[in-house]
Design brief:
The chain has 228 residues and is α/β, with parallel strands linked by helices. The chain has nine helices and ten strands. The strands form two sheets. The protein has a seven-stranded mixed sheet with strand order 4-5-3-6-2-7-8, with helices on both faces. A three-stranded antiparallel sheet has the order 1-10-9. A hairpin with a 4-residue loop joins β4 and β5. α1 crosses α2. The longest helix has 18 residues. It is globular and about 45 Å long. The N and C termini lie close together (10 Å).
Length: 228
């Protein structure tokens, strides 16, 4: 189980812990970074970060993990793989007029849609405009070719995925990556939902690399102190 601590924050962009406002949070993300390095043993570099249901903190955690690796001067690519309800462009305040959807539809090249985020030393591939057929686009061989191309350019690739339950996109993405991390939100996610997510990942032949428990109230730290 990977863990970290954080404070509640206000506007969307403040959810990026690496802005330096909370040293404790930054340190905990560095611990997660170390744990990911340990479980991967340098053999994998494309990871899906997903959850069972919406609202478990998946997108915020994904962006902060990517930035934690960017601090190591790694070549990091963050992909917003949620073409139904994209979030990463809002967190980073970036344009989303082109991205993964237009790339998979063969309307653009990788170089045309990548957005460098220099302050965090990462590259960002937004989801692009919401397509009418996200599951079909993700099922195409174009995505596999894209990930192979990205592997040649980046040390690590993190994909922010839609939730697994009742949406086809997440399981499709899980079948195309080296490993998956499952976000679980305390007091929100039911045990049966976690079990169903694990079953979905197993059926997708996705290797479960670990779990991140989010928003656990830590005793004795006040009402605004939580841990991931």
């Amino acid at each position: 189980m990977l863990s970290l601590s954080r404070k509640k924050t206000k506007p969307p962009t403040n959810r990026l812990a690496q802005l330096g406002e909370n040293k404790s949070v930054n340190e905990q993300f560095r611990i997660i970074r170390t744990n990911i390095e340990f479980v991967s043993m340098g053999q994998n570099n494309v990871y899906l970060i997903t959850s069972s249901i919406p609202g478990e903190g998946k997108s915020t955690i994904t962006s902060n993990i990517a930035m934690a690796f960017g601090q190591q001067n790694k070549r990091v690519l963050l992909i917003d793989g949620d073409m139904r309800r994209p979030t990463q462009d809002k967190l980073f305040r970036r344009l989303n007029n082109v991205g993964l959807s237009t790339l998979l539809a063969n309307q653009h090249t990788l170089e045309e849609v990548i957005q460098p985020i220099e302050e965090y030393n990462i590259d960002f591939l937004p989801s692009g405009p919401v397509p009418p057929n996200p599951a079909e686009l993700l099922s195409s061989t174009t995505l596999e070719k894209l990930l192979e191309e990205c592997k040649q350019k980046y040390d690590l690739i993190f994909i922010d995925s839609p939730p697994l339950i009742d949406i086809a996109d997440g399981p499709i993405l899980a079948s195309k990556v080296d490993g998956t991390f499952l976000i679980v939100r305390a007091y929100k996610t039911y045990k049966t939902e976690i079990q169903k997510s694990i079953q979905i990942l197993e059926q997708s032949n996705s290797k479960v690399m670990g779990y991140i428990l989010n928003d656990v109230k830590k005793q004795g730290q006040g009402k605004n102190y939580y841990v991931y």
